[in-house]
Amino acid sequence: MQKTAITKILKDSPFSLVLSGGGALGIAHLGVLHDLEQHHLTPSEIIGTSMGGIIAACMAIGLKESQILSHIKDFSSVSKWIKFSFSGNAIVDNSKIERILSSIFQDKKMKETLIPLKLISTNIQNGHKRVFTAQDDIYIKDAVLATMAIPGFLMSIL
What we know:
Elements: H1 3-12, E1 16-19, H2 24-27, H3 29-38, E2 45-48, H4 51-60, H5 65-75, H6 94-105, E3 117-122, E4 129-132, H7 140-147, H8 151-157
Parallel strand pairs: 1-2, 2-3
Antiparallel strand pairs: 3-4
Helix pairs in contact: 3-5, 6-7, 7-8
C-alpha cells in the first residue's frame, strides 16, 4: 500500500499509538512522531510504558518531536538522576528524576492531556499490571515514574 493511501486511512480513522520501553529503543519512537507530524496525523489515544511512556506523556501534553528530543537529551545525562550509595540499596535518586519530570509536566494530571494517555506499569511485588488513565487522580509525573519501574516510588502509589 502506498504511503498516501496509509496516510488517508489514518486521517479518516481513529487510531491508537502504542510506544514500548527499552531506553534507547524507546527513543526510536521519535522517528514515528516525526512522521506523524509531517503528515498532520494525531492519534485518538497514546499508550506507553517506560521510555515509551515518557515520550507518550510528552506528546499527550502537546510537545512536538523536536521538543521531546530536547528533553530526552537532557534526561539522558545519567549524572542528573543517578546517585551512588554505599549504605542501602538505592542507586537511582527518585527526587532527581522527579525534578526533571516536574519541569516537563509541571502539575498536570492524567485527565489534563490534549490527547488521552494511558501509562502502563507493573507492581514488582505481585506482578499485576496497572494502567493509569484520565480516570486516575494522579499527576502525569507520578504515573511516568511508576512506568519507569522505580521500585521505591512505585510501591507508594500502587
